[in-house]
Amino acid sequence: MKKVLLTFFSLTMILVLAACGNNNAANNAANSAATTAPTEAAAAEPTTEPAAEPVTLVIGASPVPHAEILKAIAPLLEAQGITLEIKEFTDYILPNTQLAEKGLDANFFQHKPYLDDQNAKNGTDLVSVTAVHVEPFGAYSKKIKAISELADGAKVAIPNDATNGGRALILLAKNGLIKLKDDTNITSTKADITENTKKLEIIELDAAMLPRQLDEVDLALINTNYALEAGLVPTKDALFIEGADSPYANLLVARPDNKDSDAIQKLAAALNSAEAKAFIEEKYEGAIIPAF
């Protein structure tokens, strides 16, 4: 009897161990499948390049028209992951200083003769990226309606910076009010006047102040951006004005270290786009002329 029981017990244990072995094998197979499945699924997923990091460009600009133009083309850049942070300046010195010191990524307010003059004076090497528009320079007055009314000894105000002062003198010469040694030299000064038959008193003032001096002088030659800010309409209010062939295109300016960057080049393309041209032509009605 004992032998029968022992045999029965042995057979039972063998069956139990076999069942356990089968369960472990099944569990191991299931675990292996569970571990492998996600890996295979992941491998089947399409891979994509990570999105480029958004870029913010800090741009210095005169309020009118430069900042207005930048705001108009900002959506074109937003679509490309580039945000414009526009810092407005009412003078012509700080935008170049801050760009050189890397407080700005670029600026937009000046023409090439002015840029060249400032680089030479300050030992900087700021560079033009692209030309955007021309602001024909004009002469304004609250005291006379036509240039023929300008009296002898009249007070005529011009910008006091080298290139814009020279530009004003050239415009006076081209309209027969004075004569210069060279009426194409933008660096001309009062010392270069060879004839002043009307004995005009030429007063040099900071360019930004000129619109506010119209009550004090007989004639003022004013940069178009400051004229627009003062509510003047160059095509209507100027007694005489440069033609559309003015060579003084306003520039997007950067540094040698960032001028070729993708973001700056995309900004340049947006400023030379059909959208920018349409905005300039519709908004300023000839007072500002696209240079592209």
TrEMBL record:
Pfam families, per database record = Lipoprotein_9
Keywords per UniProt: Lipoprotein, Membrane, Palmitate, Signal
Q: Does the keyword Lipoprotein apply?
A: yes
Q: Where in the cell is it found?
A: Membrane
Task: Look up the signal peptide feature and give its range.
Answer: 1-25
Which PROSITE patterns would you find in this protein's record?
PROKAR_LIPOPROTEIN
Q: Which InterPro entries match?
A: Lipoprotein_NlpA
Mostly located where? Answer: membrane
- SUPFAM superfamilies in the record: Periplasmic binding protein-like II (SSF53850)
Topologically, how does it sit relative to the membrane?
Answer: Lipid-anchor
Sorted alphabetically, which PANTHER family does this protein's record hold? D-METHIONINE-BINDING LIPOPROTEIN METQ, METHIONINE-BINDING LIPOPROTEIN METQ
Similarity comment: Belongs to the nlpA lipoprotein family.
- Please give the name of this protein: Lipoprotein
